[in-house]
Amino acid sequence: MTVTRPARLTGAALCAALALTAAVWILKDLAVVGSPTDLAWSWTGDLLFLARGRTATSFLDPLLLVVSVVTAVAALRSRHAASALVATGAVTLALRLPGLWAPGSGVLITSLLELALAAGLVAAAAAGRRPADRPSEQLPTRPRTGPAVAAGVLLAAGALAVVLWEAYWAVELPPETTVDRFVGGRSVFTLPLAPPPGWLSVILVALYGTAAGSAFARARHARSFGLLAGAFLAADGLIESARAVRFSLIPHIAEISTAEQMHVLTAAFGLFGGIAVLALLAGRGVPVAAPVPYVPYGPYGTYGPPPSPPSPPPPGW
Known about the structure:
This protein is mainly alpha-helical.
């Protein structure tokens, strides 16, 4: 399937609007904090930098900005950007939904705007799809078996790690805090534009699981969902690794608790595993075979694939 030019232009415009919205909030927080370094540390969850000013963005905002820009470029350059538009729209919808019940009118307006833009992405991709009529070398490619399976294993391991950490926190934290981790509440500190941590975990598990399944099946949309999942896996690992460096966990890894050691290892796996997924799925894939052309033949104009020549063929065949 391909996407019509009007749908691609619409999708690119919607992605540009999403990127612009994220950029405005990042610049606003930068003006509050006063330093790009301090803003970056605030994205790691460092309360020392968060206490200096009321910031609203999390590490998800620059990540969504980059994802929106990349998707806009893909929509402009490729006739097969439907899966990229759907993946970006679906993830943005899921991430911004908790903003509907977050305090602050600015956050509510932003959430409503981005939810509308994300829904428009999905609608544009669905409305602009049409059957492919290009030669096989111009059709979307499937990832090769080896890289696809390797990426699927890494993404499945990432989903399992998120599930295990949520199970750990459910045991360690009081029931009220566990519930607030998924729906938001006073017992859990959350930045205004960031979803609750448990909610984010559900989204990551769904994204990693979907991408892993499509990679194992070598589906045509495996690249779009896999690259998006790899970006989230790498970004989450980068933030957690930076947090471990900030609190000097790595130099004293032999002295810290088992849970903290596992936290450091999970962060390292997310960072390097996400980069590996991006590298595995960014390579050239296997072209999809072109559909067999259907032409009229026979005395009644029947439509179907061209008939095979008789053997031996008659003179003049």
